[in-house]
Amino acid sequence: MKAKSPTPPPTSMPAMVLGCLELICMPLLADQSVIAKVDTGAFSGALHCTDIKIVRRGLNRKRYLKFTPLGDPALATETDRFQRTFIRSATGHRMKRYVIDTEITVKDQAYPITIGLSDRSDMKRPVLLGRRFLRENDILVDVRINQELDDEGESTK
What we know:
mainly beta; 6-stranded mixed β-barrel; two-stranded parallel sheet; globular
């Protein structure tokens, strides 16, 4: 008698596959697309912001986080929905960073994201997507995708 092969588990939608660099938009913060680095080595994501500070408003002196996404003064914004948490940097140092909940659009698909705000002016890409975002949204990474955007390894000859 021939053994029956096990029935594969039911599958949901196939996972989205991103390249190591992707064109993304954060419509609640900026009405422009930017190239984000997809980094499976980073746990959390980061958004380049400048002028990050706490301000108090109103009679009850409610706390708001004021920041400038992508370093563009025209995009300056405030939110009362933020947290301050410890983040371990790429060099291994623990530091406190502000994180916000927002929305990100990748390949015409909108996703919620919790992202840290930091000055990434020394970095090549203004947005970093870490593996927490990838896991939460069942996203895979194939470094062959969008490799034409990857100019980090090119020589300066």
